[in-house]
Amino acid sequence: MTRTEIASSTLPARIERAIERGGAITFVGPSDPVRVPWSQLHTEAQAAAAALQARGITAGAHVALLGPTTRGLVTSIEAVWLAGAAAIVLPLPMRLGSLEEFVSQTRVRIANADVNLVVIDPDLAAFIEPAPGDPPMVLLNEIVGEAATGTDGRPVTAADFVAPEIDPESLAILQFTSGSTADPKGVMLPHRTVLANLDGVATAAEVDVDTDVLISWLPLYHDMGLIGCLTLPMITGMDLVLAAPQDFLAAPARWMQWISDFRGTATAGPNFSYALAARALKRMEGLDLSTWRIALNGAEPVDPVTMEAFLEAATPHGFNPGAAFPAFGMAEVAIGGTFPEPGRGLVTDAVDKHALENERYAAPLSPAEAGDRPIRHLARLGRPVPGLQIRITDPETGSVLAEREVGELEITGSSVTPGYYKHPEATALAFRDGWLRTGDLAYMVDGELVVCGRIKDMIIIGGRNVYPEDVERAAADVDGVRAGNVIAFGVDGRKGREALVVVAESKSGAEALAGVRSAVSQKVTQSVGLPPGDVVLVPPGTLPKTSSGKLQRSLCRSRYLDSDLQPI
Question: Per-residue b/e over 222-247, b at no fewer than 16 CB within 10 Å?
Answer without folding.
Answer: bbbbbbbbbbbbbbbbbbbbbbbbeb
